[in-house]
Design goal:
The chain is mainly beta. Helix content is about 0%, strand content about 50%.
Length: about 130
């Protein structure tokens, strides 16, 4: 099992930036991917971004954040960050960090493939 702790959420005006960080501990070297998901009130939890492979060989983003968000990993610090620029009110949600073990057949966008989750951090973008 992997323990995940998010930080960096807050309130920002539209067009502003925030950086979320996820500190991971435990068997992180076995993970096949790390992801960020978000959940707005009354909505399903949705995929935002993922970094695949322990060294971060590949990244994936949902269309609505491409060009604005960047996911990155620091293997020395065991952290996964989400840099969010040009934020929009529709980005308002609770953001969750998640860890994906190896051997999953579903895509990295499917939250069912992740077995460890952080507690979430609130991001609020005002118009």
């Amino acid at each position: 099992q992997v323990r995940l702790v998010e930080s960096g959420g807050g309130l920002v005006q539209a067009g502003g930036s925030l950086r979320l960080s996820c500190a991971a501990s435990g068997r992180t070297f076995t993970l096949s991917a790390m992801g960020w998901f978000r959940q707005a009130p009354g909505q399903e939890r949705e995929f935002v971004a993922a970094i695949i492979g322990w060294s971060g060989e590949r990244t994936d983003y949902t269309d609505s954040v491409k060009g604005r968000f960047t996911i990155s990993r620091d293997t020395a610090k065991n952290t996964v960050d989400l840099q969010m620029n040009s934020l929009k009110p529709e980005d308002t949600a609770v953001y969750y960090c998640a860890a994906r073990p190896p051997g999953q057949i579903m895509t990295t966008r499917d939250r069912a493939g992740y077995d460890s989750w952080g507690q979430g951090t609130q991001v609020t973008v005002s118009s």
